[in-house]
Amino acid sequence: GSARRLRVTLTPTPTDMLQILSPAGHPWLQMSGEAPDKPLDSAVLSRLKQFSAMNKLKKMALRVIAENLSEEEIAGLKEMFKMMDTDNSGQINYEELKAGLERVGANMKECEISQLMQAADIDNSGTIDYGEFIAATLHLNKVEREDHLYAAFQYFDKDGSGYITADELQQACDEFGIEDVRLDDMIGEVDQDNDGRIDYNEFVAMMHKSTAGFGKKSHQYNLSVGLRDALNIKSNS
Q: Which ranges carry the EF-hand domain (predicted)?
């Protein structure tokens, strides 16, 4: 009905976010001058590596939150994106990510860089767009604001029931271009009371929980630990 249409209208889609977060079209970037040619900040790289260990739901939630952030809240990240995006395409490709990592003296194998690239590339496009970069490098104190968390939960809870169901999670994955998902596993990582769905408290607990608490059985978590060791960067708490 009309309420459903209104809810959909008020809920940003990944396409909306791409337009809002586009470096070429966003006024935040148009107002700023040339990005400084400086090495990548080690704390930001640490957050990027932590992002690689997160489950898919948390990655999608961070992408939703990124759309709601002010210029002040992402200070420095947009300049860093522009610095890495050397061809000004609005996308960071493998070679650009590799060059950015080399600037900080990272001793990483090409396969590790490739896996890090894949982890940050939420929609599996083969590149990291501006929204994905912001989502992957946000500081946790920006992520854990109550209004941001509630807005992100509402994005997934399409029918406003107070729960994220398997069908709603599948719809979100489709919207983000995420394929070959195991919905039961995604829900099971977060579903504390084993009712087969995710309520708001469970969602908040996932967002607040440290990276190491999620995906610890997966290859991605082992990769994340290995990347931190390779870069000799301590994980942010």
A: 72-107, 112-143, 144-179, 182-213
